[in-house]
Design goal:
By secondary structure, the chain is an alpha/beta fold. It has one domain: Rossmann fold (3-Layer(aba) Sandwich), CATH 3.40.50. It has eleven helices and seven strands. It has a seven-stranded mixed beta sheet, with helices on both faces. β3 and β4 form a beta hairpin. α1 packs across α11. The protein binds adenosine-5'-diphosphate (ADP) and magnesium ion (MG). It holds the Pfam family AAA_31. This is ParA family protein.
Length: 274
């Protein structure tokens, strides 16, 4: 492999479409279902880039209070304090080989706090540079905003993955998202790869799903990944009960879907990045 670490941002400017759920399952699939060429497991870092802390709470299994009491440095400190290094922010999670830079609710204030920085969209990229080589994949779970936290992630990432909900699909929404990625690409040294897939697909709505898929394929061509995630209560229940879709005991439909999608993403990475 020419490229040692792949940085993946999970982002769409809409909330509630399954970004955090996918980010957690993607990470768990990467360390469980896939291996390095030498047969050893991948080592992954999650970056919680959302003051809502969904990824932090789920990956640690701790409450917001426990996180605040037990963690010294979070995303807010990392992004706003020059002296805080990424290595001092990384904590363990419940999952082997998945590490985390946690976020607490103050991370929503980060964009205002960094507004006077000289180059305030490259802070994350610069901060994670010294620790990148310790990981195979870094997955950044973004908030559904368009603020500096998101732009920092889009400058730090190699790839951005955007889940889209079939029910909420709009051409205008997609066009705006593509414009946003293009804007970032004009300022990057290397282009940001952007892939879109369907999330929370209600498999009973076959006609609508097909229409949305055709729409996405027409606009995105190869950047549309035709492997989606179904609307299934197991995605909600597994995380609520302390599992993921990957190790959920009574239902493996989620595990199979996530693995197939992860496989497809790895193929794209191999084709275009490595
Ligand atoms: N594939 C899915 N099927 C059913 N419910 C889902 C699925 N993915 C996510 N959800 C639920 O939808 C809500 C929003 O998901 P979340 O991952 O937090 O979205 P986002 O990070 O985009 O805001 C949560 O209640 C979550 O449990
Ligand atoms: Mg989220």
């Amino acid at each position: 492999m020419k490229k040692d670490v792949i940085v993946i941002a999970i982002y769409n400017n809409k909330g509630g479409i399954g970004k955090s759920t996918f980010a957690i399952n993607l990470l768990h699939s990467l360390v469980t279902d896939f291996k390095r060429e030498d047969g050893t497991p991948y080592r992954c870092l999650a970056i919680d880039n959302d003051g809502q802390s969904n990824a932090t709470l789920t990956l640690t299994g701790k409450s917001e209070d426990e996180i605040s009491e037990t963690t010294e440095n979070t995303m807010f400190n990392l992004m706003t304090d020059e002296d805080v290094l990424a290595k001092d922010c990384v904590i363990n999670t419940k999952f082997e080989n998945i590490f985390l830079i946690p976020a607490t609710d103050d991370h929503s204030d980060t964009p205002d706090a960094i507004s006077n920085e000289m180059d305030n969209t490259r802070i994350m990229k610069e901060k994670i540079a010294p620790i990148k080589s310790e990981y195979d994949f870094i997955v950044i779970d973004c908030a559904p905003t368009k603020d500096r936290n998101v732009y920092n992630a889009l400058f730090a990432a190699d790839i951005v993955l955007s889940p889209m909900e079939t029910q909420l699909f709009s051409r205008v929404g997609l066009r705006n998202l593509l414009k946003q990625v293009n804007k970032v690409n004009k300022k990057r040294e290397t282009p940001l790869l952007h892939y879109v897939f369907l999330s929370k697909v209600d498999n009973r709505q076959k006609t609508n799903n097909q229409k949305v898929k055709e729409n996405l394929q027409t606009v995105l061509l190869d950047d549309f990944i035709d492997k989606g995630i179904s609307l299934l209560s197991l995605y909600v229940k597994s995380l609520d009960e302390g599992y993921t879709a990957i190790n959920y005991p009574s239902d493996n439909r989620g595990k199979i879907e996530i693995r197939d999608l992860t496989q497809k993403i790895l193929e794209k990475i191999n084709e275009e990045l490595i």
